[in-house]
Design brief:
alpha/beta; eight-stranded mixed sheet; 34% helix; 10 helices; single chain; 335 residues
Length: 335
């Protein structure tokens, strides 16, 4: 049931699907060397918020069909729902995720979409949305969402104010309250490369994990038409250290209190013997896409054929060896 005073979505509404998702669903033939295992769907028009890195931001000059480097063509929602259900039955899709821009009735629109998709398929559903309060989160979970993702994006208040605007304290408080009220059902996004130090990023990751928040890590991606289009992505070696920290901390394999940092905020050591760290990271799983189970986001942060910040598939033994060796070279050896 929609909250009183909120208009129901219009009949015949369309849902956007990422180009890779559309291909997997059979809606649009697209050659791929890595297929998404989650159906990525987008709701809403140009966002009312104005994040400096986002193609959908209010003042963005980027393509209105884009989010990050990915295009999201629109299709009739019932057609998409049926296609997701069919792909899930075949095992091609193992999760669905709604990316929602902020606009009039955006929470009600999300609630309706989650309810419709949950009625069509039993695949787990995530809603990445900006709720106003805990009641919004509860309604989305009751509609059938397995997880609600409240994107923090920035690791510090200074970065948040510079890139997102708005009220940092309110965003943090709602995320923390939701995690406490709905344990195991709340996630967030963090973007590495917006101006924070590795120390600041890892401290934020550790705090969120301690609160039971599932963290999806992104590399900052410059997008043409946004205020940050000329800014560089983070150095790969810096991103790898934060990735490894998230992976180790989320599995209880390391203690954030044992981490040590250099004066410039770069991570110097995980506080583990080098051989033990190499053994833990040997299969390369730490460098794969993080977030909800079965979320692999192919080429969300990368160009096909370019450097992979988030591997959307298992690493080959040669790839894993290369990544682990590079990571260890950037650390201060521990006994």
């Amino acid at each position: 049931m929609l909250r009183a005073g909120l208009a129901a979505p219009a009949e015949g509404e369309t849902w956007r699907a990422s180009s890779g998702t559309a291909a997997v669903l059979g809606l649009r033939p697209t050659p791929m060397d890595a297929a998404p295992t989650t159906a990525y769907l987008m709701l809403g028009a140009r966002c009312l918020q104005n994040c400096a890195f986002c193609a959908q931001a209010r003042d963005s000059l980027a393509d209105e069909a884009a989010l990050s480097r990915v295009l999201w063509p629109a299709y009739p929602r019932d057609e998409v729902a049926r296609a997701v259900a069919a792909a899930a039955d075949e095992g091609a899709i193992r999760r669905a995720c709604f990316q929602v821009t902020v606009g009039p009735h955006h929470v009600a629109r999300t609630e309706d979409a989650v309810h419709r998709l949950a009625a069509a398929t039993s695949v787990p559903i995530c809603a990445s949305v900006a709720p106003r309060d805990l009641a919004d989160v509860e309604r989305l979970l009751e509609a059938g969402a397995e997880r609600v993702t409240i994107s923090l994006d920035a690791a510090t208040e200074a970065v948040y104010r510079r890139t997102k605007g708005g009220r940092w304290a309110r965003g943090c408080a709602l995320l923390e309250e939701a995690a406490a009220a709905f344990p195991g059902h709340i996630g967030t996004h963090l973007i590495v490369g917006l101006g924070e130090t590795e120390h600041e990023a890892i401290v934020r990751v550790a705090d969120l994990l301690a609160r039971g928040v599932r963290v999806a890590l992104f590399s900052f991606t410059p997008v043409r038409g946004t205020p940050l289009e000329g800014a560089p992505p983070p150095p790969l070696e810096a991103y790898r250290r934060v990735q490894a920290a998230l992976w180790l901390l989320a599995r209880g394999l390391a203690s954030a209190e044992a981490f040590r940092y250099r004066d410039d905020g770069t991570l110097a050591t995980f506080g583990l013997p080098e051989a033990a760290l190499a053994d833990l990271l040997a299969d390369g799983d730490a460098f794969r896409t993080s977030g909800c189970p079965d979320c692999n986001r192919p080429y969300y942060n990368e160009r096909p054929g370019g450097t992979l910040f988030n591997y959307p598939r298992p690493l080959t033994p040669a790839e894993a060896d290369r990544e682990v060796d590079a990571l260890l070279r950037g650390l201060t050896p521990s006994p």
